[in-house]
Amino acid sequence: MSVRLHAAAIAADVAVGSTTAVAVAQEVLARLAAYDAVQPQVWISRVSPDALLEAARAVDARVAAGEHLPLAGVPFAVKDNIDVAGLETTAACPAFAYRPARSATAVERLLAAGALCVGKTNLDQFATGLVGTRSPYGIPRNAYNLAYVSGGSSSGSAVATAAGLVAFALGTDTAGSGRVPAAFNHLIGYKPTKGRWSTSGLVPACRTIDCITVFTDDTADARLIDGVIAGFDAEDPYSKALADRAVAPRRIGVPRRDHRMFFGDAQSEYLYETALTTLSGLGEVVEIDITALREAAQLLYGGPWVAERAAAMADLLARDPDAIDPVVREVVAPGADIDAVTLFRGIYRLAELKRGADRMWADVDLLAFPTTGATYRVAELAAAPIALNSNLGAYTNFVNLLDMAAVAVPAGVRENATGFGITLIGPADSDRALLDVADSYLAAADLPPPPPLDKEGRMDTVKLAVVGAHLKDMPLHWQLTSRDATFVGAFETAPAYRLYAIANSVPPKPALVHDETGAAIKVEVYELGMAEFGSFTAEVPAPLAIGTVTLADGSSVKGFVAEPRALAGAEDITALGGWRAYIARGV
C-alpha cells in the first residue's frame, strides 16, 4: 500500500466488495498508532477505535443494502474549528472549548456519503496564522522535514493527509490556511469560492470571507469531495447557489518580475521559474502589475478586517485574554479599537480594488502565483513569529477578500524535502475549471513523487560544491570525511564561471569566479550537517570564501568562491574544465 490514501480508490473498492469499511478503519488505526510515535500533536481529539469500527460496520451495512455511497469507507479528518457531533470544538483554545449538538453541514454531507470521521486536527489558534506553531496542543511539523513548519492554520489537517493517516482532511482558509500547508506538504489544497461550501458549524475567523477547504493527494479526490459538499445551505447566510464558470488557460497572469517576492529563498525562485516554463506550454504567460492585489492583501491584517477577527473572539478577549496565545492576541486585540469610520473606509477601498480585480479577468483568464515565496524552520518562526508569518501570506491574503477561487498544487521539492507549490487563482465560480487546469499543469510538469516521510527528525543539512583540493582523493578531502559529509554527486556549474590556479598556494588551490563569459566547471557536491558546515566554513582561509554556486540545472548550492585578490598572478585554467584536469596536466 502506498503511503497516502486515495478517497476515490477506497470508495470504489468498498462499493464492489474488494475491501470493507471495517478493513479500511483497521488499517487507519494501525497507521495512527505508528504515526503517534512521530507526531501525536497532529490531533486534538480522535474518535475512539470502537466508535470508528462501529461507524465502519454501519457503512458496510449500507453498502450491502444497495445504497450508493460516493465516499464509502473513506477516512477523513476535520480541523478543530469545524463542528463534529460527539467531539469538542476547541479552535486550539481549551478555554473556548464547547461540545456541539450537531456537526457542521460540510461534515454532515461527508458522513451521509459514507465517509468515516477519524478525529479533529490541530491548528493555529482561532485559525490565526499561516505557520502551524500557535497552539497549546503542540506544533505539527512538516511531514517531510520535522525541523520545518507544516504551514497553517490548517496544520494538522495537512500533515494527517500527507502522512497517509486519512484520505483527505477538511481545513479552512481566510488568508491562505488551506493553501500554504498544502504547498509545504506536497498536497492539493482546494479552496472553493466563498459560499460554494457551507460554513455552518465553523468557528469564524473573518466570517464574511471564511471558506472550508480540503487537502487531498490528487485533483480527482478534490473533485469528488466538492461533489459531495458543494451546494446551497439555507442555514448559512453566506451560502449561495452553485454556479460553474468556464476558464481556459489561454492567458495566464503572473507577477511582474520586480513584484516577485522570495525572501531570500533561491530554490523557491528557481522552482517558480520552472513552473512558469511548464505553464507556457498551456497558454501565454503574461506578466501583470500586482500592486492592487498587494494593497487588498494588506487590508486583511493591516486594515479593519482585524476587527472582524476581534469580533469572533470578543467574549474571550474580554473574559480571559491570557487564555489566548500571546502572538494571536497581539495580532487580534487591536481590532477591538478599530472604529466604524475606519471600517467603512476599508470597505469602500476594498470595493474599488475588487472592481479593478474584476476588470483584470478581461486581460487574463487565471493567475498562477507562488503559493508562498519561502519556507521556514520552526525555530525561525519562534524568533520572528509575526514578520515571517506575514511573508507566507504575500501571495494568498488577497484571494478571499476579492472573492476568487483557488487551487494550490505541488510544483517541486526543495533540497530540504519540503514542498514548493503554485496556486491557480480564478474568478468566483471557476472552481471546477481550475481543477481542470491543475490536471493539465501536473501532467505537463511530471513532478517526482513526494520524498519519504521524516519520521525521526531529518538533520538540517547544507549542500556544498567543492572544486579543488577538497575533491575526492585530493589533499584536503579529509576535511569533509572527518565531518561525515555525504557525497551527493559529480556535477558541472552553469556555463558562467572561470577557474584559476592561485599563485603560490600550498597545497595548490583553485579560485572559482563568476563570469558570464566563462564556461561550465566540474565540481563535486557533498552534504553536511548544519553544525559541520559551520565548522568547515570557519576553516576556509582567505582569499577563498564560501558563497553560492549555480549548477548547470539551475539549482543553487553553497560552494567555494574567491575574493578578487586571489587572481593576482593566477593562471586562468577555465579551458581545462576542472581542477582534476589541471592536476593531471602537472602543476
Features:
globular; five-stranded mixed β-sheet; 19 strands; 20 helices; 33% helix; eleven-stranded mixed β-sheet; alpha+beta
Structure overview:
The protein is an alpha+beta fold. It has 20 helices and 19 strands. The chain has an eleven-stranded mixed sheet with strand order 1-3-2-4-6-5-10-11-9-7-8, with helices on both faces. It has a five-stranded mixed sheet with strand order 13-16-12-18-17. It has a three-stranded antiparallel sheet with strand order 15-14-19, with no helix packed on it. Helix 2 (21-35) runs antiparallel to helix 3 and helix 9 (291-302) runs antiparallel to helix 13. The model has no long low-confidence stretch (mean pLDDT 95).
Report a brief summary of the structure:
With 587 residues, this protein is an alpha+beta fold. 33% of the residues lie in helices and 19% in strands.
The DSSP helix count reads 20
- Derived from helix and strand composition plus strand pairing, the structural class reads alpha+beta
Largest sheet data: 11 strands, mixed
Strand content: 15-25%
